[in-house]
Write a structure and sequence with these properties.
The strands form 2 sheets. The chain has a 6-stranded parallel beta sheet, sandwiched between helices. Helix 9 links the parallel strand 9 and strand 10. The chain is 46% helix and 20% strand. It has 2 domains: 155 residues, Rossmann fold, CATH 3.40.50; 132 residues, Rossmann fold (3-Layer(aba) Sandwich), CATH 3.40.50.
């Protein structure tokens, strides 16, 4: 059996190469305000190198997270370029869902990455279980504050499914402690550090009773700058997400108490593995949701 291994693999590789398969990938742009997607891209690049051996190419395009028409245009461009399968971080908009449904009805597998979209007929989702991660944040906050808290929530946009689910999970976890743990306000920062600084500063000025912050998406650095400018950096309990370089520094200096991570490398590579198995070996994923692991990072294990 061992002797047959190499020729079999070689034969398989040649057969796959003949198919001339191409994958498309549409990802939210990584910005200086939200460098999270740099780590997702690193995962895509590692997997792309593996796929290259089989003659499979990956065409990655970037979209803004507030422009659904741009996403639809990018999907059309990739389809015109001859892709066989698509991975996408979708904007939660009916036009995007409609376009994904149209592609799946034409027989193209579509995997949603990092954030899911309802009524799209997509083959599978790869990413965090945001409701669970929100509950985890709620549980942490309860532990850190001894169950007495006035919380300010800063979130990218309640129009993005993953952001709203993190907030809803957080609320669910704290529902039974409503008397002791009070959510003072929920403010949007559009994942932008400058906006995050301004809205956090305004929130803290308006509500001096706030003793903890839940930073439910990006713009963490901007929010923490506002906390420091108000000299509250050791007085507030702060929970955030992901472990981008600036967040890591803020944990090390004690500004952020804990951050919850979501395996960005896996979010980059796993969708390509699913597309490969589906198109090459006709393997449909056993489950239509592949949840990445959550890790709680504190100063001692960062």
């Amino acid at each position: 059996a061992l002797l047959n291994y190499t020729p079999n693999k070689l034969g398989k590789t040649l057969a796959i190469k003949k198919k001339n398969i191409k994958f498309g990938y549409i990802l939210f742009s990584s910005t200086s305000d939200n460098p999270f997607f740099d780590d997702v891209v690193a995962g895509i690049n590692i997997k792309s190198k593996e796929l290259k051996e089989y003659g499979i190419s990956v065409d990655t395009r970037f979209s803004e997270f507030r422009d659904p028409s741009n996403q639809v245009k990018l999907m059309d461009q990739l389809v015109d370029s001859g892709i066989n399968g698509l991975a996408i971080t979708p904007i939660n908009h009916s036009d995007v869902a409609r376009k994904i449904k149209e592609l799946t009805e034409r027989g193209m597998p579509v995997i949603t990455v990092n954030t899911d979209i309802e009524n799209s007929g997509r083959l599978a989702y790869v990413g965090s279980n945001y409701l669970e991660s929100g509950k985890t944040a709620g549980g942490l906050l309860r532990l850190f504050t001894g169950g007495q808290a006035n919380v300010g929530i800063i979130v990218g946009s309640m129009g993005i499914l993953c952001h709203s689910e993190r907030v809803n999970g957080f609320k669910q976890a704290l529902g039974r402690y409503r008397r002791e743990i009070n959510i003072v306000d929920i403010i949007e920062n559009y994942d932008d550090d400058f906006i995050s600084f301004e809205v956090t500063k305004a929130l803290l000025d308006k509500h001096p009773e706030i003793n903890s912050l839940y930073l439910a998406s990006a713009g963490v650095y901007g929010a923490c700058r506002a906390v420091k400018s108000a000299n509250l950096d050791k007085k507030l309990k702060i929970i955030s997400y992901d472990c981008v370089p600036t967040t890591k520094l803020l944990i090390e200096d004690g500004t952020i108490d804990a951050t919850i991570t979501q395996q960005p490398h896996v979010q980059g590579s796993k969708p390509l593995s699913i597309l490969f198995d589906y198109l090459v070996f006709n393997i449909t994923p056993k489950n239509d949701r592949f949840y990445t692991n959550h890790e709680i990072k504190i100063r001692e294990n960062i």
